[in-house]
Design goal:
CATH architecture of the largest domain: Alpha-Beta Barrel
CATH class of the largest domain: Alpha Beta
Order of helices and strands: EHHEEHHHEEHEEEEHEEE
CATH topology of the largest domain: Multidrug-efflux Transporter 1 Regulator Bmrr, Chain A
Shape: elongated
Number of strands: 12
Mean pLDDT: 91
Helix content: 25-40%
Number of helices: 7
Radius of gyration: 30 Å
Largest sheet: 9 strands, antiparallel
Low-confidence stretches: none
Number of domains: 3
Structural class: alpha+beta
Length: about 270
C-alpha cells in the first residue's frame, strides 16, 4: 500500500522536510513520485530502513557515513571498524567536555576566592617545532640577559643565517642560578651547526599574554602557575617567554605596549 509522504512522516515520527532531504541525498527514496503532482509515496516496508538511518544518526554518524553503513556489500569487519572508531570519537568528546567542566569549576573557585575576574586568560595549545639559533648561560638576575643576546646576534651575523620571528627566552632553571637560553627563530632548512637546533614540539602548552613592561612578568607568571595548579596540571619542561612586540629601546621597564607570551609545558597531574 502506498502512503503519502505526510502520513509516512507521521508514522516514522520525522518531518516531511527530513524525508525530502533523505530523498535528495539518496538515503531513502520514495517508491513512487507522481509525475503530475510531484507527491512522494512510500510503503510500510521502508520503515525498517528509516529506523536504521535514525538509529545510526543517533550514534553520531553523519548522513554520508550512514549511507556507507547502509551499503549491502559492507562487510561485518568494516561495520565493526566504523562503530569502534565512532566509539573512540565519542569517548574523546566526553573527555573533552569533562576537561572543560573542570576548567569551568576551577575558574569559578578562583573568582570566589579572589572576588574578581582573572587578569590573565590562559589557554592550552600545541606548539610546533621551531628552528632556532641560541646561546645558553647562567645569569644572576632576569635583567641580565643582554650579554647573551649580544653574543647570539654576533654569532648569527658571522654565520649569515637568515632569521625570522619570533625571538624568545627559555628558562631551564630559576633562581638562585638562572639557566637561560636566548633564541632567535631561523629558516627551517638551516643545518644543525654551532648554536642552531630545533626546539621540540609541545603537545600541551599553557599560554597567557602579557601586555606592558617587563616589570609585569612576575605577576603574569604567578597567575599562569596558579591556573596550572588549579586546573590539575603539572609543569613538564622549561618555560618559554615569546617576545611578540619588543619594548622601545631603553623602555623594558616602562613600555606599556610591549607584548609577550608566557608558555609553560604541562601534563595532567
Amino acid at each position: 500500500m502506498r502512503i503519502r509522504i505526510g502520513n509516512f512522516a507521521r508514522i516514522g515520527q520525522v518531518t516531511v522536510q527530513t524525508l525530502r532531504h533523505y530523498d535528495d541525498v539518496g538515503l531513502l527514496k520514495p517508491v513512487e513520485v507522481d509525475t503530475l503532482s510531484g507527491y512522494r509515496y512510500y510503503t510500510l516496508d521502508q520503515l525498517p530502513r528509516l529506523h536504521r538511518i535514525l538509529a545510526l544518526k543517533d550514534l553520531g554518524f553523519s548522513l554520508e557515513q550512514v549511507s556507507h553503513l547502509l551499503e549491502d556489500d559492507l562487510s561485518l569487519l568494516e561495520l565493526r571498524g566504523m562503530l569502534r572508531l565512532k566509539q573512540s570519537e565519542l569517548r574523546q568528546q566526553v573527555q573533552d567536555q569533562l576537561d572543560r567542566l573542570e576548567r569551568l569549576e576551577a575558574r569559578l573557585n578562583m573568582i570566589e576566592q579572589e572576588n574578581q575576574l582573572p587578569k590573565y586568560e590562559v589557554i592550552i595549545k600545541r606548539v610546533e617545532p621551531l628552528r632556532v639559533a641560541s646561546v645558553r648561560g647562567i645569569i644572576p638576575t632576569y635583567w641580565d640577559e643582554e650579554p647573551l643576546w649580544i653574543e647570539l646576534v654576533n654569532q648569527i651575523q658571522q654565520t649569515g643565517v637568515k632569521t625570522c620571528e619570533p625571538s624568545l627566552s627559555m628558562y631551564h632553571a630559576g633562581e638562585p642560578e638562572i639557566d637561560v637560553e636566548v633564541c632567535i627563530a631561523i629558516s627551517a632548512d638551516a643545518a644543525d651547526v654551532g648554536t642552531i637546533h630545533t626546539l621540540p614540539a609541545v603537545e600541551t602548552m599553557a599560554s597567557t599574554i602579557h601586555k606592558g613592561p617587563f616589570t609585569g612578568f612576575a605577576s603574569a607568571y604567578a597567575d599562569l602557575l596558579k591556573w596550572i595548579d588549579a586546573n590539575g596540571y603539572l609543569v613538564n619542561g622549561p618555560d618559554r617567554q615569546i617576545y611578540l612586540r619588543l619594548p622601545e629601546e631603553g623602555q623594558r621597564r616602562s613600555d606599556p605596549n610591549a607584548l609577550t607570551e608566557m608558555q609553560v609545558p604541562v601534563i595532567k597531574g
